[in-house]
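Batch job 17 of 40 flagged for manual review because the log was empty.
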Amino acid sequence: MKVATSLIATLALVASTVLAARQQDKPIAINKKVLQTAKVPFIPHSGAGLFTNWVGLNVDFKYVKPVFDLVNATAAYGNGTLISRGEAHVTVILPTEYDQILQPAGVTIDEINRLASQKNRLQKSRFELECLGRVQVVTKSDGVFQQSLQIILKNYKDLTRFRQDVFKLYVKKGGNPALFNPENFFPHITLGYRHRDIHLEDGVFKGKNACIHTIVAK
């Protein structure tokens, strides 16, 4: 039964890829105000448990939702199966980076949040949009076909500089520099996903490699 489930999931992945290739290459448009993140507040994310501490650039969801609706209604992409979180952000410090690397070295989430909120630094970050991206995988644990669609970013030097400052704090506290690479991340805005979101831990990379369609801010 598990083999049959995996086969069906794999066939679904192949079919969706073929359908996407047939889509016309008309760019998807998004309101350019989505880039004006300085106008929305920084939201700290902290908690007592695993995966509750992370840092994100808050993005105005009202400009992202029309793109989600369009993608979800497109047969080759969402076909009505995508789940939206009802909010939008760019994860800059991953929960796993904090839990497994930064916190053990003594870096607190409050310290990182102070770096982010000082003079509204993180929310003032500039970036551009690379493309509509999609990652797909059949998860090994259950053989289920998963997919997630996102807006891939480019020219995000401000976000990299923020991560570099977190790295400096980490090393200052005695952290092993080999464990945290500030340049090694794939900033994106998640639009929606099927079943659950999928991540690097699932074997997918949400970079330019995942581009499937042009997206323009205007």
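Reviewer: the log was empty due to a logging misconfiguration, but the result itself is present. The longest strand covers residues 128-138. Unflagging and moving on to job 18.
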